[in-house]
Amino acid sequence: MGLGYSTESDGTMDDIVGKEYGFRVHRVEPNSPGQKAGLQSILDYIVVVNGVRLDTDDGVFIKMIQENKGKELRLVVFNTHTLRTRETILTPSDTWGGTGLLGITIRFDVTQAVEKHTLHVLNVYPQSPASAAGLDAYNDYILGVGDLLFNGPDEFGEIVQCNCNRPVRLYVFNARSEDVREIMITPDRSWGGDGCLGCGVGSGYLHSLPRRRDLISTRREERVAPTERTEAGAQAEAQAGAQAGALTEAPTGALDEGETLQLSGGDAAPLAGVPEGAFDPPADAAGGGGVGEHPADAPAIVIMSNAEPTKAQEVPPVA
């Protein structure tokens, strides 16, 4: 399970995207160590392992995996959706019931801006390949095709057309579950309607991934809490002022000449205040990280090629 997101203020992690490298997580097998660690396909990049920054493809990561079978690895993961880092524990194992020690497929690559490879699923037509694959209209967002991150709807369309009548693996984010799932879809021009998939897609700002609900709640609490403390302090000061006013505005004749007014106990009562620093905004915890990879013949994990075709005729069949 992940250990929670860091709490950087807005914009502090933007410089990482497109500049820093990491191991992008692709396939995550069910019940695998990778799934138990809460790794999320396409959006997560592993950038630090046990304090070691993985910013070069030098085999350090795979070596650490092999040397720590059955032992905990502490990962720092950068998520391109939240633009935050988090820590999680990953335990390599050869007894989880599948292939490899982690049960994930990764690729060493530069971090990619999620809006460049996001398509919002709009209408899904009955009896279409999209309907058969279970795409959820207006709630699903396509993030990747096989081991490829497409760049916009045109390149996605080229990849789909090049793989007509062949099963294609899509990585899809769902706004309801806020998770990424893997689906298989078979593009088919003869399904009975327009297009190969039978669904509409949208791109751009209006079709970007919605913000995670837990992060929206956190930001709202951070904004509201200082206001609540300020109002409480103002009320306390107002009450103290009212008490002071009641003493100084004693009715004429309430005190005989030569008498003095004392508070209970004989000492002046202190004003009800707030602890020092109570009005300060909550401090943000900074996070950071870097990245790396391992040889293709290593048994512990599957590494993908860095080459990404940009033309339809160069796109190989997508498994």
Q: Average pLDDT across residues?
A: 75
The second-level CATH architecture of the domain at 2-113 is Roll
The poorly predicted ranges are 1-11, 244-319
Distance between the termini: 29 Å
At CATH level 3, the topology of the domain at 2-113 is Pdz3 Domain
SSE order, one letter for each helix or strand: EEHEEHEEEEHEHEEEHE
H/I helix tally: 5
Structural class: alpha+beta
**What sort of overall outline do the alpha carbons produce when their principal axes are compared?**
globular
Largest sheet: 8 strands, mixed
Radius of gyration using CA atoms only = 29 Å
Mind telling me the CATH superfamily name of the domain at 2-113?
Answer: PDZ domain
Provide an overview of this structure.
The chain is of the alpha+beta class. Among the domains are: about 1-115, Pdz3 Domain, CATH 2.30.42; about 120-210, PDZ domain (Pdz3 Domain, Roll), CATH 2.30.42.10. The chain is about 20% helix and about 25% strand. It has 5 helices and 13 strands. The protein has helices at about 35, 60-65, 130, 150-160, 215-250; strands spanning about 1-5, 20-30, 45-50, 50-55, 75-80, 85-90, 105-110, 120-125, 140-145, 170-175, 180-185, 200, 300-305. Strands 1, 2, 3, 4, 5, 6, 7 and 13 form an 8-stranded mixed sheet that branches. The protein is globular and about 55 Å long. The protein starts with a strand and ends in a 16-residue tail after the last strand. Mean pLDDT is about 75; it is low at about 1-10 and about 245-319.
